[in-house]
Write a structure and sequence with these properties.
This protein is mostly helical. The chain has a domain of about 50 residues. Helix content is about 50%, strand content about 0%. The chain contains four helices and no strands. The protein is flat, with a radius of gyration of 27 Å. The protein starts with 19 loop residues before the first helix and ends with a helix.
Length: about 100
């Protein structure tokens, strides 16, 4: 009887192998990087020109690349009152003992 599913020895993609579309994407990415390196001056100038015209996306891209992305912070205030932190989804052994 031939097995038609489940775990079989030698089944599936071999460890470390890559799909053809992944290999094509890598080649395209390398080509794009080389083209950007060749054309970096006009690309940077165009981005700066868009930023000068008030393009918020261009400004954000410039500042994120030069200064780094701003880290999102959350400030928790409770006006000095105590508060309880509740962990959701954790198994609590205290509930079993009661």
């Amino acid at each position: 009887m031939t097995q038609r599913g489940g775990k079989r020895p030698g089944a599936g993609r071999k460890r470390g192998s890559k799909a053809s579309h992944t290999l094509e994407a890598q080649v395209m990415r390398e080509h794009l990087i080389q083209e950007v390196i060749k054309e970096k001056e006009p690309l940077i100038s165009a981005l700066i020109a868009r930023g000068k015209k008030g393009d918020v996306q261009a400004l954000r891209e410039i500042f994120d690349r030069v200064l780094g992305k701003v880290k999102e912070t959350t400030k928790i205030e409770n006006e000095g009152l105590p508060f309880q932190i509740i962990e959701i989804g954790k198994h609590s052994p205290e509930k079993e003992n009661k």
